[in-house]
């Protein structure tokens, strides 16, 4: 948001983008972890798709960061 209002140096903008993606990843992971699978399974497969997708996306992102750091 700040970058839309004023000019922010490229380095700060780059690290702010990385931080925002990391925080979004944490939010999605926290949402998936707090989901009760037994209740979702009772609701049918359509209710489980977003949780499974978020879990797989979180895993893939974490794996991608691990591969980049090694």
What can you tell me about this protein's structure?
The protein starts with a helix and ends with a helix. Helix 2 packs across helix 4 (45-69) and helix 3 crosses helix 4. The relative contact order is 0.09. It is built from four helices and no strands. The model has no long low-confidence stretch (mean pLDDT 78). It has helices spanning 2-5, 10-33, 37-43, 45-69. The longest helix has 25 residues, at 45-69. It has one domain.
List the helices and strands and how they pair.
Layout: H1 2-5, H2 10-33, H3 37-43, H4 45-69
Helix pairs in contact: 2-4, 3-4
- Helices and strands, in order, run as HHHH
**Strand content range:** under 5%
Q: What structural class do you assign from the helix and strand content?
A: mainly alpha
**Total DSSP helices:** 4
Distance between the termini: 32 Å
**Overall geometry:** elongated
Number of domains: 1
Mean pLDDT equals: 78
Total beta-strand segments:
0
Helix content: over 70%
Please compute the radius of gyration using only Cα atoms. 17 Å
Largest sheet: none
Q: Unreliable segments (pLDDT under 50, ≥5 consecutive)?
A: none
